[in-house]
Every structure is written in C-alpha cells, then in structure tokens.
Structure of Condensation domain-containing protein:
Amino acid sequence: MTTIPARPGRLVVPRDRVWRRTQIVGVLGPLDVPSPPRLRDALYRLAAIAPGRPPLCTLDRAGTRWRPVPGPRLAEHLDRVVRPLDPDVGGADDVLALVERGLRTPPADLPLRISVGGEHVLVEMSHLVGDGRHLDLYWSELLGRALDGGVPTLAAHAGPRLALPRAFAATFARHPGRLAAIARGAGAAAGDTPLTERGGGAGPDGGADPAFVARHTGPELLRAVRDARGGRDTGRSVAGILFAAAWSAVARAGLPAPAPGLWVLFDGRRFLPVPAGGVGNFVAGVYLEPADPRDPVAISTAMRAVIDSGRPVATMAAAAAKQLAPPIPLPRRGRGPAAPPSRPAPTLAVNFLPRLPGFTGLPWRASPGERTLALASTPGGPGGITVTMAELDGCLHVSITFDGALFERKAVRAMAELLCADPLGLVR
C-alpha cells in the first residue's frame, strides 16, 4: 500500500474551519460492535497508510490546526480515542443520556472519540472531520473494518484537491449572472450568517446550553409522507414536507412561535465536477424565508431556487473566505449579575438525511423499527433549535438539540413526538 506522509501541524482548511465550534454526537444500536482493541487495531491499520488523518491527530486549542500524533505516542492516543462504554450503561435510553453530556463537554483536543460496549456505539466527533452525509460512510467503515479486519480506506483520503474552488468554477464560470444575482439578492450568500457563527459554543460563557431529545418511527410514516408527496408536478418534496412539519411543530408543542424562516443545510457535493468521495465537509447552511413556512410546496420551491442558483457554493466560499480575515475582538462583559434568560422566538435549523447506505449495512441486532440512530449537533447559538431527521431502513429518526436554558425539555420532547406521530397533520 502507498503510505500518505503526515504533515506536522498542518492548518485546517478554511472550508472545514467554518465548523470548528460544532460538535456531532451520535448513538447507534443495538448492533454487533467491535471490542475496543479491535477498533484500535483498525486505526493502527489506518496509521500504516495515512498517518496524518484526523483520527490520528489532535487539535490545537483554537481548532485551526491538525497535530499528527507521533508513532511512539500513538498507542496512548488511541487509548483516548477508543474507550469502553461505562459498564453501568444499559440500553438505548442510558446511551442517549450520554449524548447530552458529549455536547456539553466535548473532548477539547480530540477530533474523534468512540465508546463501544454491549450493543451500542457512542461517537463524539468534531464537525471539522465531516458533515452528516460523510459520517454515514465514515463511521460505518471504521466499525465495519474493525469487525472484518480490513483497512478503512475512506478515512485514508481527503477527497479531491481544491474541492471548493472547483465547485465554484463549475457553478459560476459559465454562468456569471448567477453570482451577480446572488450578490444582489436580499439573502445574499455573503450576508448569510453561518449557522456555526451564530453562537459562541456551549456553556455559561454566553453560548447555548445544549440539551437533546430523540424519537423514531416505524416504516409506515415515511411511506405515508412519500405517498402524500405525489408526483413531481405537485411541487412537494419529502424534505419540504418534513421541514414544514418541523416548523409547525414548534408552536404546536407549546414553544414560542418560531421566526418566519428556517435554516436549511444543503449538500454541496452535487456541484462538484469530480467524484466527491472523501470530502468531509461540503454543506452550507442557507436561511430560507418561504412564503408560508407551514406549506411544503413553498419550502420545496424555495429549496429548488437555492439549488438552481448555486447559492450553497457561494455561501460556502463566503464563509471560508471569512475564516482568513483577522478575528474581531468581542466586547468585554460586565461583572454585574446575569440577567434572567428571555424566551426569544426560536431559530429553527433543519436537515434531512435520506437513505443512509453505510449505517444500513451495519450488523444490526434489531428490526428497523426497533433501532436507535441519534445524531445530535451543537445548537446554533442561544435560541437555536436544530432538528436532524435521518432515514434508516425506511424509518424516520428525529434528533433535536436546543438551548436548555431557554426551552423546556418537555415541550421539545412533545415537538419530537408530534413529528414522529403525524407530520402530515402539521402542514398545509
């Protein structure tokens, strides 16, 4: 095999650096899980061909530089990366309780940490490593190669060089009018505040206080949603139906009425003129203001307009360029008593991950309707509610992260239950 040399202390590319404040915590089970030694062995095999890849690195304090771990310290490092689950952790509910802890206290210098035991896996990953679409193949490959003794080849590659410039050129070089239209638009990409920069991280320093709930359905719900979508001439999409239902579920669950728009994550890989394998982060958060956020047709129409314009690529480019500018100092905080938290209108962020082939291929020990797949990410600042909806073997898995200092867990749990009970009853 060809060895990929490690570059000491290399910078995180600006496209990834956008996500340095965001943590992803996931739970999968019940399934056949590798023992910690077997998972570490898979990472040793990765180190033999690609010693500088993220699982074999630490991060500097700012989250802007990868620091490859030297060979003599690799065993110590992998003991930190791969851990046994606490033996007191029993079923899925116990593991789900660990998700919130992972969001509140992420490992400061580890881009990836995996805890395995019993029938469940808990993964804590910096968004610097990859986005929701990437982690499906990335996590499942690490687990699969640990079980079968193979080499995790996807984790060994970083994707095509200059991916963002190539996508930008392919999208706008022949259609410069697209970029001009985006710049003129009321929601220009340069004016979009990236989801990742709306908050200052978790905890008492002014950012969100992360909390989390999860629910899932049987296969009949998504079948009903697809039936309701109808043909292409209806103007509806599955994502549009689910996003409209999520927006409506906020107030229906007893939370403050949300702002009239919503953040939607768009996968930018569709704009790449070359195969996107290995590209970790290639998504853009774009704020949509549909004519009626309760209407799936309005949301689907707004999403198609964003894709047709190339705005996700422009947004990614603007956000990456912003990382190259000197940071703006934050104002000093006064030492007076903290004001009690207000109840602002929630800012909703939504994502739908359909048909996850990597996770589907794992050795599950339960039928599709009895599986747990939770994918939680740092909420987008105070007032943020992030809804991640993932399809696994035809079943919908809903994960919601929110600011626990502002929103009642009971109400957010009701929101998740509404989405899993009757999303079609929530939309126009």
Q: What stands out?
A: The two ends are 56 Å apart (CA to CA). Confidence is low (pLDDT under 50) at residues 186-191, 197-206.
